[in-house]
Design brief:
By secondary structure, this protein is mostly helical. It has 15 helices and two strands. The protein has one domain.
Amino acid sequence: MQATLKDSVILSAKGFCMGAADVVPGVSGGTMALILGIYQRWLLAIQSFDSIWLQHVLRLHWREMVTYPHLHFLLPLVVGVFTAVVFFTRVIPLPTLLHTHPEPIYGLFFGLIVGSIITLLWEIERLDWSAYAFMLVGTLLGWWIVNLVPMTTPDAPWFIFLCGFVAICALLLPGISGSFILLILRKYDTVMNAVGQLDFAVIIPFALGAVTGLVVFSRLLSWLLAHYYRQALLLIIGILTGSLWVIWPFQQRTYTLAHGKEHLIASQPQLPVDWTAQSWLVLGLALGGLLLVLWLHRLSASQTHSSE
């Protein structure tokens, strides 16, 4: 019982970190799940809501509806995510701090992502020309996505469905933010207004697209990791590397107004003009984030070795 409670608390803490990442523009919960070492388990938990579970639902098998999916993993994680979103939007307004003190916050996340890249590289047995090619493709893909500019798009239900599909896929993929994709597609404001006003003409196609994206893309990612683990890992490393373009703390940032709030749409990295105390603080936070990930990776590896 104590072990189960301890596991739930740890999962809630990891969910809290994922929720905090979702609040930060340009950082995804998938990135944080990867950093925390629960990415593949997260994908498998999403996939547990499959056709067999749906059959239990349709047949009103209440016990199987609860015990079949990985709720023991997802529930504490979701509680942590929800708590973080509320905490960092109501108690400590992280989106506001990103405007008032962007450099320290982005510095910490920059270090976390660099640390995750290093730990993922340790998983690669050898780095040959093909490895560098996959990482280059992933880096270019990640850089291209984070540098997209908002476009004019239709409000038809089929496109709202597509937006839900693409946004949830971006959420699952490390290095890409789902909310950022909605901003690119000019549908962030549309979706947020629809939720606030209970406009089901928008909510229903968007939700259907998101559910479809979860079902399809989570399985695609798991299949790729199962059959092409090395190649998929190299692409993910590349995408994370490309996303560093907008996470680098010292930026000339461009924002757009959506749903009454400013959101990041473009960044131009630069070096600090003056090396002030804050500049050194930012670098210290980045180094601290990097060392934290390396320490967590080593701790996780030692625990795995002990259990074996």
